[in-house]
TrEMBL record:
Residues 1-21, 628-649 are annotated as: Disordered. One of its GO terms (molecular function) is ribosome binding. Pfam families: NatA_aux_su. GO terms for cellular component: NatA complex. TPR repeats lie at residues 242-275. PROSITE patterns: TPR (PS50005). SUPFAM superfamilies: TPR-like. Residues 1-12 have a biased composition (Basic residues). Keywords: Repeat, TPR repeat. This is N-terminal acetyltransferase A complex subunit NAT1. The gene is TPHA0M00370. It comes from the Eukaryota. It comes from Tetrapisispora phaffii (strain ATCC 24235 / CBS 4417 / NBRC 1672 / NRRL Y-8282 / UCD 70-5). SMART domains: TPR.
Length: 838
């Protein structure tokens, strides 16, 4: 048979696609799956001796090494394997192995690519679709999740979890009716076949289906009635009775059946008479929200039904207008609790202090003082203690600190063994700005009960606020595992104790500011000393330089630890994408997804980000100053070696105390690498700001921080955008907007090192959105922008003045304004601003 003319010769196969005798590889793979990593490695070494370019063996060896903790060596083998693969063309097994490795190293995007490549290259392992859907859920690619879950569902239709997973994916992608149909289809298949352990899962799925129906119905009365019918028909199979009743009431209110809805809310109140929300909704269903007389009658009646419940007695206090009747009602509510010795009496009524600040504090002061006069220490010891405790909290709230001290001292004198009294005493001293004394008061209380973890943590926190980090660590270490460390710092990082780490970071930052001030003062004074005294001061300067850098590095180290915790929280979701659906808790799973979308906007994370931003901006400014100025060589000292030796000895001693991670996982105990970064702004963006910026809503965003970040990056257009957006929230005449606009205007001066195009954009924004700003005066040396700010904006926002001070605008003019604005602040905040902001 003749050859076809012009037929192309077959191309030689690449090393990645060359067929192999893979029986040895399969054996090594089985050993890996059974966690016999060393045996698997031994077998792979024999295979690679025969052919060192066998990609599948290289990839599996990398995975084995990673599993044994040899991460660096594993990385080199994986990179070697990948370098031999072109366009993901490799065996399905190899792609699957690489996908598993990428997932283990938390490189989810690449893991998805390799898993998909495994399927595209002919893998018949349908379990990959499950792994793929989990990873796609982790990165938020829910369109791809739907496709993957559908494929997996088609392969394994006998498991309810797969039906639920598909329904959830359909719902998230807006395919509500398809999700309902999917759940309904399985309900028909499973009817009469459920075992007792499956009943809870069935209950959750029914409720989830009802949630979808309710969301899809919106305000359509006909559809809402179908949702209600579905709920009533299946009520006997649903375990979450609160959810059933709340859904019934919500539907009835939407359909206008207020009388029936009121009955449901009464049933809910009967089940849980301490839930304020049910009472408020009952008012709405009865149509009496704006009728104070009818509301008062309602709560009087409810108070007789539920005499032990708080809401029927508390809610009327928020709307009673007659002062005499309000006094009488307050007297009944407050004194009844004080007679019973309820420690939380003030906490219970504190919301009213804020809500009705013009009358409630005054009436309560008269009532409780009069009540205290009727008590005898011998016959009513409990009431005496907690009444004094109440009055102390009251006077603390109204900022009458001497009176607050007087009453807490009376309580302590009466019963000196009550721990709660020392906590309140510490709080009062803290608000007075006496932080060391506050910490000592807590320490005195802690010694009364050495087994109380709460007072232990509170004491440690107060010591940190007083900048006594050594004592704080000593106290908190009493409740930590210290097997391989001199204190509990390492254990606190292990258990992700954010409250301690953030407080320690802030304490280190304050110590950094103090050391920096002392260093500047000493350098100034050293410039005038004689040569004989120079050596004496040089040692102090060297020590202060180390302290300044050490505290800065440690503060950054602790702040970045908070970021790592939240990154870990995000990574931990990976396991729950399968666990929640396997357990049938679809509603909880959707709540977790919502939580994950805002994880980087949580208070502790934002607090750490703001604290770290100051340090990163300071590092950036220092780098700019170094680049702009010539480096002057320092004089060599004859005693250098001796001084360096003593300083190194001190470092070695301190290293064990501040160590936060095992030595083999961290070689930067003092955070020196963080503080010596050549790109501090990039570090801030990568560690904190980008994650926050991707999740935060326009309403909740910290626009001042966004403005500063973009300004430091030289992006004046984005800084201008931050001001414009913020002005829509707080108003264009707010003092903080004025301060930001002035700073932006001054950035457009001819001598500023920003790009001309950026300056032009900033000018246009200011001219169009903030036309009152004298943009034409920015290059005038005689124009006083602080005077302009004072004449055109209210001086009620100290943060606006501090922002102007931060940019070194006429310090002599701005400082008196700051001092005047902080006069009304409590001593604690006032002292902080004076010591660490100015």
């Amino acid at each position: 048979m003749s050859k076809r003319r012009g037929a192309a010769k077959p191309k030689p196969k690449s090393a990645a696609s060359k067929p192999k005798d893979n029986s040895g590889l399969l054996e090594a793979l089985k050993l890996y799956e059974s966690k016999n990593y060393k045996k698997s490695l031994k077998l792979l070494e024999a295979i690679l001796k025969k052919d060192s370019s066998y990609v599948d063996a290289l990839a599996l060896k990398g995975l084995d090494l990673y599993s044994t903790g040899e991460t660096e060596e594993a990385k080199s083998y994986i990179n070697n394997a990948i370098s031999k693969i072109k366009s993901f063309k490799a065996s399905p097994i190899c792609c699957h192995i690489l996908g598993i490795y990428m997932r283990s190293t938390k490189n989810y995007t690449d893991s998805i690519r390799w898993f998909q490549a495994s399927l595209d290259n002919g893998s018949t392992n349908h379990q990959i679709y499950r792994d793929l859907s989990i990873l796609q859920s982790q990165i938020g690619d829910f369109k791809a999740v739907l496709a993957s879950r559908k494929k997996y569902w088609e392969a394994y239709m006998g498991y309810r979890a797969n039906w639920t997973s598909l329904a959830v994916a359909q719902y998230i992608n807006g395919e509500r009716q398809q999700a309902i149909n999917t759940l309904s289809q399985f309900e028909k298949l499973a009817a009469g076949k459920l075992s007792e352990p499956e009943l809870y899962e069935n209950s959750e799925c029914i409720m989830y289906k009802n949630d979808i129906m309710y969301t899809a119905a919106e305000s359509n009365v006909e559809k809402l009635n179908k949702v209600l019918k579905h709920l009533c028909d299946n009520e006997k199979d649903i375990f979450d009775k609160y959810a059933v009743l709340e859904r019934k009431a919500s539907i009835l209110m939407k359909t206008g059946e207020f009388k029936e809805a009121s009955k449901v809310y009464r049933a809910l109140i009967k089940r849980n008479p301490d839930n304020l929300k049910y009472y408020k909704l009952l008012e709405v269903t009865l149509g009496i929200s704006n009728d104070k007389g009818l509301k008062l009658k309602l709560y009087k009646k409810l108070a007789t039904f539920y005499p032990k419940a708080e809401p029927p007695k508390y809610i009327p206090l928020s709307f009673i207008e007659d002062e005499n009747y309000l006094r009488e009602s307050l007297n009944e509510y407050v004194t009844a609790q004080l007679k019973r010795g309820v420690p939380a009496t003030f906490s219970n009524i504190k919301p009213l202090y804020r809500q009705r600040s013009d009358i409630i504090p005054r009436l309560c002061e008269d009532i409780v003082t009069e009540f205290l006069g009727t008590l005898e220490a011998s016959s009513d010891p409990s009431a005496v203690i907690w009444t004094n405790y109440y009055l102390s909290q009251h006077y603390l709230f109204v900022r009458n600190y001497p009176k607050a001290q007087e009453y807490i001292d009376k309580a302590i004198e009466h019963t000196p063994t009550m721990v709660e009294l020392y906590i309140l005493k510490g709080r009062i001293l803290k608000h007075m700005g006496m932080l060391s004394e506050a910490a000592e008061a807590l320490e005195e209380g802690r010694k009364l009960d050495l087994q109380d973890r709460f007072i232990n943590c509170k004491t440690a926190k107060y010591y940190l606020r007083a900048n006594d980090i050594e004592k704080a660590v000593e106290v908190v270490s009493l409740f930590t595992k210290n097997d391989d460390a001199v204190n509990g710092v390492k254990d606190l990082h292990l258990v992700e104790a954010s409250w301690f780490i953030i407080e320690q970071a802030e304490a280190y930052n304050r110590l950094h500011v103090d050391s920096k001030k002392k260093l500047e003062e000493l350098r100034t004074s050293s410039a005038e000393v004689t040569e004989e005294d120079e050596n004496a001061d040089s040692q102090k300067i060297k020590e202060l330089e180390w302290d300044t850098m050490k505290f800065q590095g440690l503060s950054l180290k602790r702040y970045t630890a908070i970021s790592k915790f939240y990154q870990q929280f995000e990574d931990d979701q990976l396991d729950f994408h399968s666990y929640c659906l396997r357990k049938g808790t679809s509603r909880a799973y959707l709540e977790m997804l919502d939580w994950g979308k805002s994880i980087y906007t949580k208070p502790i994370y934002v607090r750490a980000m703001k604290g770290a931003s100051r340090l990163y901006f300071e590092l950036n400014d220092t780098l700019k100053e170094r680049n702009d100025s010539e480096i002057v060589p320092k004089k060599k000292s004859n005693t250098k070696n001796k001084k360096d030796s003593s300083l190194n000895k001190r470092k070695d001693q301190e290293r064990k105390i501040v160590m936060a991670y095992p030595a083999d996982k961290d070689n930067d105990e003092f955070g020196e690498k963080l503080s010596n970064s050549k790109k501090p702004l990039d570090d801030f963006l990568n560690v904190f700001f980008t994650k926050y910026n991707n999740q935060v809503t326009d309403v909740d965003k910290d626009y001042v921080l966004a403005f500063l970040t973009e300004y430091k990056l030289g992006k004046l257009a984005l800084s201008a955008g931050a001001i414009t957006k913020y002005s829509k929230i707080v108003g264009p005449n707010a003092s903080i907007i004025g301060a930001m606009a002035i700073i932006l205007a001054l950035a457009t001066r001819d001598d500023q090192p920003f790009e001309d195009i950026a300056k032009q954009v900033a000018r246009k924004v200011l001219e169009s959105d903030f036309s009152s700003i004298p943009i034409n005066e920015v290059n005038s040396p005689d124009f006083n922008f602080i005077k302009y700010f004072k004449d055109n904006y209210k001086l009620d926002n100290v943060n606006a003045l501090l922002l102007l001070d931060y940019f070194q605008l006429n310090k002599d003019d701005i400082k008196p304004l700051i001092l005047k604005s902080i006069e009304t602040l409590e001593p604690y905040k006032k002292i902080y601003i004076l010591e660490y902001e100015l």
